[in-house]
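Researcher: Here's the sequence for the chain we discussed earlier.
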Amino acid sequence: MFHELAPHDPHDKCGHHYAIYLDLKNQCFEVLDSMRSAADANLTTHAEFFINNLKETWNRHYENSKVHIRHFPIEYVATTKQGNTTDCGFHTLEYLAKWEGRLVPVVTAATVVELQKIYTWN
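Model: Thanks. This is the structure I predict for it:
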């Protein structure tokens, strides 16, 4: 997900990346954010808006499916928090690459440096 943090400021086009997973096995949505937690109203409002739209879309396109997601709760997964306001993309990429619903990938400043090298090389 990409969340524009200052939508009414034409000069601030900075935003924040975080991940939302649909976990069919455990019947829930999981939110991983490297900067915020479930106590942050901006995160919960943004995530719930997206998830509610996803539930509506699922219901419309998969109404005959054996899987129904309308009742799935949202879990805000505790993650290592980034030490600045610029590394959220690297944290999110690691979540996307490694999240299996059990162990949260630990992303440190050293991990970000290595990822920058890898992505630059690639």
